[in-house]
Amino acid sequence: MKMRNVLAALPLAAMLAACAGSGSDRGVEAVLKPTQGSSAQGTVLFRQDGDAVVVTAKVTGLAPGAHGFHIHEKGDCSAPDATSAGGHFNPSAKPHGHPDHGDHHVGDMPMLVADASGAASLTARLAGVSVGGDPASSILGRGVIVHAAADDFKTQPTGNSGARVACGVIAGR
Ligand code: CU
Ligand code: ZN
Predict the structure, then answer these.
(1) pTM score, two decimals?
(2) What are phi and psi of 70, to 5 degrees?
(3) How far apart (Å, rounded) are the C-alpha atoms in residues 67 and 132?
(4) Considering the domain boundaries, does residue 124 fall inside one?
(5) Structural domain of residue 141, as residue ranges?
(6) Is 105 assigned a catalytic role?
(7) Which of 67, 104, 142, 164 is catalytic?
(8) Which CATH number characterizes residue 125's domain?
(9) Is 55 part of any domain?
């Protein structure tokens, strides 16, 4: 009886392994680590969904309120203030703006809004990027930054969202 159950489970296991093999379906992840003097941390998942990428973020340790949130050009969090991640990911050379309307960097995302406990979560669809597609638009290996202040979606080229409080590199899971 036991043996039979094990055998019956095998095809399912093989199927799951096959699914896990197709990288973009299961998504990629950036683990956000605090910059110097910050306590912000979290995880950001990116999953290809047709022409768009769905981002799901969970961050803690923030000051209550709104925080600029972007994909940055370089997956390099080595500097204590994370300036090593460069500017916003902007392969199409557009001005900074709101991701839902008008011109914007493809790395511009909606703001994270932290509650009184400093926790924020966000789900959004991003156009103009891919997970491992065309190298010019792929977000694999790029950086994710959470900022100290709100993004005004106007000031060039940063949205005036202040210091970088958390940084992560987008990588396969
Ligand atoms: Cu940023
Ligand atoms: Zn931007």
Answers:
(1) 0.85
(2) -140, 155
(3) 27
(4) yes
(5) 23-172
(6) yes
(7) 164
(8) 2.60.40.200
(9) yes
